[in-house]
Specification:
Shape: globular
Number of domains: 1
Distance between the termini: 39 Å
CATH class: Alpha Beta
Order of helices and strands: EHHEEEEEEH
Number of helices: 3
Oligomer: single chain
Number of strands: 7
Length: about 150
């Protein structure tokens, strides 16, 4: 499944970059994430609870941030599995400054296998976009709080 889109934040690019590189901020905003523990440079072990349609459960996996070009772009890789199946994905996030705001564009691919794949590509796509939307909504609130401080 291919995912692409963009979100604009009324915050300076460096602040958006710093927030997206912070594992505590990422964990707080990833829907269902119970935490991210460092296991190496820019590598984290994560546990998430995910439910799509009638299929749900815990996933354990890894999140890594790679090919950083501060403050312009980086790649986020996610891999993991659990009762509902396996997920592997990789996406590039690009940050562009636009008149005092920052646009974050994302472009990536996700592969799913197991019971969770049985819900169908269309429902997975809708659910993935909803989770991305919740992530960015949370990031926007956290950035707003950090800007006001």
């Amino acid at each position: 499944m291919h995912l692409t889109g963009a979100r604009s934040f009324p915050s300076p690019r460096q602040l958006v970059w710093d927030t997206l590189q912070n594992p505590d901020e990422l964990a707080a905003c990833m829907p269902g994430c119970e935490g991210m523990n460092p296991i190496g440079p820019d590598q984290y072990e994560a546990t998430m609870t995910v439910k799509i349609a009638s299929i749900g459960g815990k996933f354990k996996g890894r999140v890594s941030l790679a090919e950083k070009q501060e403050p312009a772009s980086f790649i986020m890789r996610v891999e993991g599995g659990g009762g509902p199946g396996r997920v592997n994905g990789q996406g590039t996030l690009r940050l562009e400054e636009r008149g005092g705001a920052t646009e974050v564009g994302y472009d990536g691919d996700v592969q799913v296998a197991g019971a969770i794949a049985a819900v169908g590509q269309r429902l997975l796509g809708v659910s993935a976009k909803m989770m991305i939307g919740k992530f960015f909504d949370c990031m926007e609130q956290r950035l707003k709080t950090r800007t006001e401080v």
